[in-house]
Specification:
mainly alpha; 94% helix; 0% strand
Length: 86
């Protein structure tokens, strides 16, 4: 609404318009707060996914090293059995 139209409105109409604008402003603030909270939640999820991915990689490395150690142990056991038989 332009300035000329606003000047033509009665005080009551102006107050009603002001109230409508205040309600809309409040609704928009609430929507913004909801959107910001959702963004924070998603940022946390993304952060956790990165952390979980890193942890998964570390666990894979631990299992690989444990598997290598188990293979070495089995080879030593077989080697010792062979030497004990001779």
């Amino acid at each position: 609404m332009d300035t000329n139209n606003l000047k033509k409105l009665s005080r009551k109409d102006l107050l009603e318009l002001l109230l409508e604008q205040m309600k809309e402003n409040q609704e928009l603030k609430q929507q913004l707060e909801v959107a910001q909270n959702e963004l924070k939640r998603r940022e946390i999820i993304v952060s956790k996914k990165g952390t979980l991915a890193e942890a998964a990689l570390e666990i894979v490395e631990i299992f690989e090293k444990a598997d290598e150690a188990a293979q070495i142990y089995l080879e030593n056991v077989k080697h010792n059995e062979f030497n004990d038989d001779n």
